[in-house]
Design a protein that fits this description.
The complex is a heterotrimer. In chain A, 40% of the residues lie in helices and 0% in strands. Chain A contains three helices and no strands. Chain B has a single domain, classed as Beta Barrel (Porin). By secondary structure, chain C is an alpha/beta fold. Chain C starts with a helix and ends with a helix. In chain C, helix 2 links the parallel strand 3 and strand 4. Classes of the chains: A mainly alpha, B mainly beta, C alpha/beta. Chains in contact: A-B, A-C, B-C. Chains A and B meet through helix 2 and helix 3 of A and helix 1, strand 1, strand 2, strand 6 and strand 7 of B.
Chain lengths: 88, 386, 173
């Protein structure tokens, strides 16, 4: 008879680092959004270089994630692609 | 008694993790403090491109002659089908052969069975661009001898008017069927659902940062059917927080990528991942690119991980001796070389080597009695932009 | 209780952030009918003299803001060469303002395309700032009176056809 109730109670809400994570999440997002001057579109030359993308080689990333997920106990975070920097 | 010691270790865990967890969370916030933000956003379909990759992977355990090898060709097409619509289609074929490594050296006998498996996977995503946001809908299907999976995902990106901030919202669901080469009677299902929330923010004209929060829930048959005595809970909830930072270095015309991921789940597995890569163009017209990378990973074992021999487990407690759920650290390093040719064509070659060692974890003592695992893989890639 | 408290705090934070984002959207201040901002920039003219918008008053001017790092800009440079050839230079002038910080990158592309259009160099980005450019490339069709007729961001096939029609219409009047 499997009882997984015990494990559900030990989940995230009881983890001591959980409130700290939320604080950092809030601070992080606030700082980024309330940031000061914006970079103008014509100043994005360096950001538009192909190696400046968050995910320059999607196939390589897929393969690496597949290996890591199959040999380790963690997964996720890489989301669905990344925010790119294109023209305009 | 081993079991008593294990419980004690679990009770002490929260204090250590509090310190280490907050240290890492603070470190990831540092690049943002006091910096202005501006972000690039891709707000229309990209030009068409085709990517092809052939990867060869091998892993083996110390003290064992047996190896697992995987050959994996894959291809990815990106095609704009109108000014505001694009389609992405991918195909993967994995061919796996060899002996499954001994994950626990107190297990004798049955392990070391030969494995021959082929996996086919296809995925497609349709993206429609609107004013200020886009919408993507995708599906994926994967099949192999003992595992079938079908999934769908829906996501949306919103960007600010100066395209300096991009928000990502996404949800996905998978329905899997698990069978077994060893046991023809096994026919189980597992479902998973997930959500992602991410922010990408340009900091200044030379750097940007992305942070993603992923939640997932797995329900159903979560055991590994090839592991003796494996008995896992029917549900698993996981949370991952990944922060990725990219910085252009003007002095060397190169870029530095830094990633940090924090993970925790309801099986009490915690992990920290740090990865760093450096992209350096060189040569005439900067047609060559050199990219070294290094990755460190540290994992805390699942609450029911147990290195007792499965024969000694006489009750129906949760149990696994699967090395993948043990406490260990992993250190990997790799290099990649890319060459650009005319007409948007480029070729790449990379090699990576990884060692998983249970004494390399920073979170707690590593799980005992596990031999090191070595992974070696190389890949060859082609890319054509139209 | 704690669960509910944390969940609602997350939702509140997200709503705050979204509303800040929505209210911070910028409105483009330059509109058709406005006077085109003046500029004086170095150019690729062999004489080495600077060019300014006032030199072309009385002509229809097509002003394009471009950069070497912009994927679609090379294609639109070829198209602008065709425009200049098609409409001549008696009553029509193309001015391509380049915003690269390093001039070499721009000159390399121009050499490769064997382009002879008039190019102005603005490495400090003064002109795009004056024109409130929202993306690269952006173009401004300017009338004989120096007023802005049309603004385009991104020059795809559809925009190219539209712009050609607008130039034709304004040259005929």
């Amino acid at each position: 008879m499997k009882s997984n109730n015990k494990l559900r109670k030990t989940w995230i809400h009881n983890q001591p680092s959980y409130p700290k994570l939320l604080y950092f999440l809030f601070i992080f997002l606030s700082i980024t959004i309330l940031g000061c001057t914006a970079v103008a579109p014509w100043e994005k030359g360096n950001l538009s270089k192909s190696h400046m993308r968050i995910n320059p080689d999607p196939l390589e990333s897929r393969f690496h994630r597949h290996i890591e997920d199959s040999r380790e106990g963690s997964s996720g975070g890489y989301g669905i692609g990344g925010g790119g920097c294109g023209c305009g | 008694m081993a079991q008593k010691n294990r419980i004690k270790k679990t009770r002490n865990k929260p204090k250590n993790l509090n310190k280490v967890g907050s240290l890492f969370a603070a470190a990831s916030a540092i690049p943002l403090l006091g910096l202005c933000s501006s972000v690039c956003a891709q707000n229309k379909p990209e030009p068409a491109s085709i990517r092809f990759q052939y990867a060869y992977f091998k892993d083996w355990q110390a003290g064992s002659e047996d190896r697992m090898t995987v050959n994996a060709p894959m291809v990815l097409f990106n095609v704009p089908i109108s000014e505001k619509t694009e389609v992405e289609v991918g195909f993967v074929f994995d061919s796996m052969s060899g002996a499954s490594p001994l994950y626990h050296d107190t297990l004798t006998g049955a392990s070391g069975k030969g494995v021959e498996d082929e996996r086919y996977s296809a995925d497609a995503t349709l993206t429609q661009y609107f004013d200020g946001f886009n919408l993507s809908f995708g599906g994926v299907y994967s099949t192999e001898n003992d595992y079938d999976s079908i999934g769908a995902n829906l996501s949306s990106r919103f960007w600010s008017s100066d395209k300096n901030t991009v928000f990502l919202f996404g949800i996905n669901g998978n329905d899997d069927k698990v069978t077994s080469d060893n046991n023809p009677l096994l026919d189980e299902r597992r479902d998973s659902y997930g959500a992602v929330f991410g922010v990408t923010q340009v900091i200044n004209k030379n750097s940007l940062v992305q942070s993603n929060f992923t939640f997932k829930n797995n329900d159903g048959y979560l055991e590994d059917p090839y592991k003796l005595g494996d008995n896992r809970p029917e549900s698993r909830d996981g949370f991952a927080w990944l922060t990725r930072y990219v910085r252009y270095l003007e002095s060397s015309a190169s870029s530095l990528h830094l990633d940090y991921r924090f993970y925790l789940d309801s099986w009490d597995i915690y992990s920290h991942t740090v990865e760093m890569a450096w992209y350096k163009p060189f040569g005439e017209n900067e047609r060559w690119m050199f990219r070294p990378r290094i990755r460190y990973y540290s994992q805390e074992e699942a609450i029911f991980y147990n290195d007792l021999d499965p024969i000694d487990i006489t009750d129906d407690r949760f149990y696994t001796a699967d090395q993948r759920l043990s406490s260990f650290g992993s250190l990997g390093a790799g290099v990649k070389l890319i060459r650009d040719f005319d007409d948007g064509f480029s070729m790449s070659l990379s090699y990576d080597f990884v060692i998983n060692d249970s004494s390399w974890t920073i979170l707690s003592q590593g799980s005992p009695n596990i031999d090191n695992l070595y992974l070696s893989y190389f890949s060859f890639g082609l890319h054509k932009k139209f | 209780m704690r669960k509910v408290f944390y969940k609602s705090r997350i939702i509140f934070n997200l709503l705050t952030i979204l509303s800040i984002l929505l209210f911070s959207s910028q409105v483009c201040a330059l509109n058709p009918g406005d006077n085109s901002p003046a500029f004086s920039l170095n150019s690729n003219r062999k004489t080495g003299e600077k060019i300014s918008l006032s030199q072309f008053s009385g002509k229809i001017v097509y002003l394009d803001i471009w950069a070497s790092w912009c994927g679609t800009c090379a294609e639109s440079l070829s198209w602008m060469q065709k425009l200049q050839d098609k409409f001549g230079s008696d009553s029509f002038q193309v001015i391509a303002v380049n915003v690269d910080e390093e001039r070499n990158a721009a000159e390399k592309i121009l050499r490769k395309l064997e382009s002879s259009i008039l190019v102005a160099f603005d490495p400090e980005g003064i002109t795009p700032a004056k024109y409130e450019v929202g993306g690269i490339p952006s173009s401004y069709l300017i009338g004989r009176d120096g007023k802005v007729i049309a603004i385009h961001e991104g020059i795809g096939k559809k925009e190219q056809d539209e712009i050609e029609q607008q130039i034709k219409k304004n040259l005929d009047t």
